[in-house]
Amino acid sequence: MRNSSASINRFMVDDKKEMGNPMSYQKPMSILTSGNTLWNTWRQTYPDVQAFEPDLHGVDLHQAQLRGIDFHAADLTEADLQQADLRGADLREADLRHANLRGADLSDADLQKARVRGADLRDAKLCRAQLSRADLSNADLRGTDLSGADLTKALLDQTQFDEAEAFTEDRHTHLKAKAPEPEGVTIPAVAAYAARA
Questions:
Q1: 99-108 contacts: CB < 8 A, separation 24 or more?
Q2: Is residue 80 classed as helix, strand or coil in its secondary structure?
Q3: 61, exposed or middle or buried, with CB in 10 Å at 0-12, 13-18, 19+?
Q4: Does the domain at residues 1-197 carry the CATH identifier 2.160.20?
């Protein structure tokens, strides 16, 4: 996994957090840099608040190898996950607001009820991703591959899409999105397929 010591140090330096117990904020990142297996084991072994909702706000994980990582309920707001390998990742109820996921591979990832509002997902792969009840409001999905993705009851208010290729008849089996407000629709196909669901 690519992480410079500078980016790790930036993550750990927060005056307000250091006034409390600094180890509780350093531990998640130090464990994560040790690899996916140790991270997933830590989350299963220590289901306390720290392990259950780890604070990874603003963390730099661009181009990181995070296949199968357990990030459920993690705070990844404003995180840099550009071109990260998140295939099969558990991102249920994760907070990914304003995260940079440009070019990331989220194929087969579980993002049920994830908060992805305002995130940059341009050119990302979301093939067969589980996005039911996810909040994708104001997210940028231009160039994103949504083939086979499940968008059941996903919030798509002002979500940006390119052409409607992911919503073609042969691919729309799992694309049962909640119809957004008319002013938030950037491609008519979203509302059209949502209405059929």
A1: 100/62
A2: strand
A3: buried
A4: yes
What contacts 168, CB < 8 A, 6 or more positions away?
A: none
Answer yes or no: are the C-beta atoms of 93 and 75 closer than 8 Å.
no
Q: Provide φ and ψ at 113, rounded to 5°.
A: 60, 20
Structure confidence by residue, pLDDT tens digits, 7-50: 433 333 343 343 343 333 346 888 888 899 999 988 888 877 67
- pLDDT digit string (tens) for 63-76? 999 999 999 999 99
- Residue extents of the structural domains in the chain: 1-197
For tokens 């998640």, the residue is: 28
Give per-residue burial for 16-30: e unless 16+ CB within 10 Å, then b. eeeeeeeeebebbbe
Cβ neighbour number for residue 150 with a 10 Å cutoff: 23
Quickly tell me which residue has 């995130």 as its tokens.
119
